[in-house]
Amino acid sequence: MVIRLNSAGWEGVDAYRVDVEVELVRQGLPAFSMVGLAEAAVREARDRVFAALRAGQFRLPPARITVNLAPAGRRKSGTAYDLPLALGLLMASGQLPPDCLADAYVAGELSLSGAVRPVSGVLPLAILARRTGARCCIVPPANGQEAAVVEGMTVYAPQTLAQCVAFLQGETRLEPVAPVSGNMASGEDAAYGDYAEVKGQLAAKRALEVAAAGGHNLLMIGPPGSGKTMLAQRLPTILPPLSFEEALEVTTIYSVAGRLRDGGGLVRSRPFRSPHHTVSEVALVGGGIHPRPGEVSLAHRGVLFLDELPEYGKASLEALRQPLEDGVVSIARASQSVTFPADCMLVAAMNPCPCGYYGDPQHTCTCRPEQRARYRARLSGPLLDRIDVHVEVPAVPYEDLRRTQAGESSADMAQRVAAARQRQQARFAGTPVRCNAGLSGALLERHCAPDAEGDALLRTAVHNLGLSARAYTRILRLARTIADLDDCADLRGEHLAEAISLRVLDRPAD
């Protein structure tokens, strides 16, 4: 008799059904065989499972055991098949009813003592289970809250293999996992601070507010110690909270990446990722032998902060071009192609030159003109083309440092950003555009037509500054966001003027 249990495999952030088929034949010499394109960690399940069965006082008769992971043509990896394999062996040997898991999905790693350990990708498994009509999921305790965020799905989280077997035999009661209101991703729950703590830098704070309101990418240019990193780290405090659908997307990515805190539920805060400049191309955009999400995907619906932008590897920065444009990362391999979401705000910071003090009245720049040119040339035109806002962040004057009066708080800025986002949602209802940063084509022409004063100002800027068509488009997007912050339906001259001022790299180089 062949026993079948439902489990799941993963491609990108989506789960697909895997049938764990177990056949136990009591004729011939004892043997164990696993088929179905199983990777090393999956094949090693045999030793973990047999040790866990012994620890739980379960005995298997001498037999030839064949395990098939179907569909056999798709590669299986990870340790999530330990628990379904152990339960399948007990069902095949008559120690559990053969149909006790007919409408359930099972996943979990087993320790040698029989404890059920956490695995990655439980949330996509629970979503798959609901979609296919399953009644429940059996997952590790550390993954229980993760699976429980899926509405309508009953989740059980046994501590050990023995407890799971007793529950399936009806000898003990296992309470379903109750979902919690929400939690943050592991390592992402540090306090971001408040913009009220920032001394001076009113122009930079305004630029960040505009970027947050329209979802625009932003580059800050300034000397060391001017507060670029501090300003960027507080950006999540003024972004609108995640909707339930956005939170589910983010939690799914963190689930597949194994980045959820044990026992964590739905991710409720927008991610803020700040990889070091030594990050590899694969770590930044995703990939590997078994493709996993990179930093740009972990920042989905949040902020990807790249400090000291020119110090990043050229290949890594160029690999960001497609995700920043399309909002997804597509990874193609000979055996499979996967897609990870990557719709994030890019916020970057850099010095104006290698020594950092070009243009600083308090310090003397030691860089030659050709050194400054080479430093700026590390950033390609196509990459800068995807950054709507570039603003200078000068050194903070002593008077501002000694000022004791608090600046404008993040809460006040967040209210204006939320109101501007609501106007954009109403304007773009029924279209794929979420915010002004995605405007193009007919939508741009329809919603970003300046008035007579604004048109004259924009015409002068294009002629005098030699602006490209790309810069023209981005100025219109920024002006639309600035108008939304002012609750103004028209694009006026002051909106265009501020938008042009937020594009310092469009000005002729010194």
3D structure, described in words:
By secondary structure, this protein is of the alpha/beta class. It has 3 domains: 2-168, Ribosomal Protein S5, domain 2, CATH 3.30.230; 195-430, Rossmann fold; 439-510, Helicase, Ruva Protein, domain 3, CATH 1.10.8. It contains 21 helices and 16 strands. It has helices at residues 40-43, 45-55, 82-92, 122-131, 144-148, 161-168, 202-214, 228-233, 244-257, 281-285, 295-298, 314-319, 321-326, 369-377, 381-384, 398-402, 410-427, 441-447, 452-465, 469-485, 493-501, and strands at 2-11, 14-25, 31-35, 64-70, 104-106, 109-110, 116-117, 136-138, 154-156, 218-221, 272-273, 303-306, 328-332, 337-341, 345-350, 389-392. The strands form 5 sheets. A 5-stranded parallel sheet has the order 11-12-15-10-16. Helix 20 crosses helix 21 (493-501). The protein is elongated.
What key phrases describe this protein's structure?
510 residues; Ribosomal Protein S5, domain 2; Rossmann fold; Helicase, Ruva Protein, domain 3; 3 domains; 36% helix
- What is the number of domains? 3
Name the strands of the widest sheet in spatial order. 11-12-15-10-16
Question: What do we call the CATH homologous superfamily of the largest domain?
Answer: P-loop containing nucleotide triphosphate hydrolases
Report the top-level CATH class of the largest domain: Alpha Beta
Q: Name the average pLDDT.
A: 92
Largest sheet: 5 strands, parallel
Strand content: 15-25%
Radius of gyration from the CA trace?
28 Å
Number of E strands: 16
Q: How far apart are the termini? A: 80 Å
Extract low-pLDDT stretches.
183-190
What spatial form do the alpha-carbon principal axes imply? elongated
Subunit arrangement of the protein: single chain
Structural category: alpha/beta
